[in-house]
Amino acid sequence: MNGEGDDIRRAIEAILMVSIDPVAPNLLAQLMEMPTKKVEAICASLADEYEAEGRGFVLLRVGGGYRFQSHPAQAAWVERFVLEGQHSRLTSAALETLAIVAYKQPISRNQVSAIRGVDVDTVIRTLQQRGYIEVVATDPGPGNALMFGTSQEFLESMGIDKVSDLPSLGDFVPGPEIVEALERGLLADPDVVDLEAEAGGEADGGSEAEVPVDDRS
Question: CA 214 from chain center: how many Å?
Fold first, then answer.
């Protein structure tokens, strides 16, 4: 194929690559300044070429336009990536919820919400999808709430053999001397000191005015 034809093919590929939604062939035709039928023929040729080369993606016509998507034969790998391949991207809310489940298990969704002070339904589902937590029991009380605990996947990711190997919560609580230092730091606010000094001066002045004068001399 001549150089101009190759350039058009590459241009169409580039446009489809950056587009989120399917691109209509008539829009591609306007951009390429060529008949729509010609664009459709090029897209069909590209699709056949990708399939013949055994690529991991395909070019499909969906919703009246063209778009790239993963090859159906690779669905299992794509699903694995989506569910397991992005563990490092847990949000702070998810990490906080995971810590609560790890240290308080078995624990219900409502109990986790009460501790965090926010609704945790979405976060709980995310942690379940990642395989970090699972249903381990059912509360025998009213409502039979599901009780969550950590999974084998969680233990493997943390590099521990059992939940009891987790560090003690006491390791994360500051000692009394640190708490005392923090309290002193908070009390050392300049505005507070000035107010206390002013109040002390007024108190001293009042006490001097009340001292009786000895006039026996």
Answer: 78
| Range(s) of the domain holding residue 30 | 3-73
* Alpha carbon of residue 14 to chain centroid: 31
With respect to residue 208, please indicate whether it lies within any of the assigned structural domains.
no
Q: Contacts for 36-40 with beta carbons within 8 Å, 24 or more apart? A: 39/12
- How many structural domains does the chain have? 2
Tens-digit pLDDT profile for residues 46-103: 999 999 999 999 999 888 899 999 999 998 888 877 666 655 577 888 999 999 999 9
Q: Among candidates 73, 72, 120, which has minimal Cα distance to 96?
A: 120
Residues 68, 120 share a domain: no
> What's this model's pTM, rounded to 2 decimal places?
0.45
Q: What CATH code is carried by the domain that includes residue 112?
A: 1.10.10.10
Q: Which helix (H) or strand (E) holds 113?
A: helix 109-116
The H-assigned helical ranges of the chain are 3-18, 25-32, 36-52, 75-84, 92-104, 109-116, 121-130, 152-158, 176-187, 190-209
Give the pLDDT confidence score for residue 48 in this predicted structure. 96
For residues 69 and 20, the answer to whether their CB atoms sit within 8 Å is no
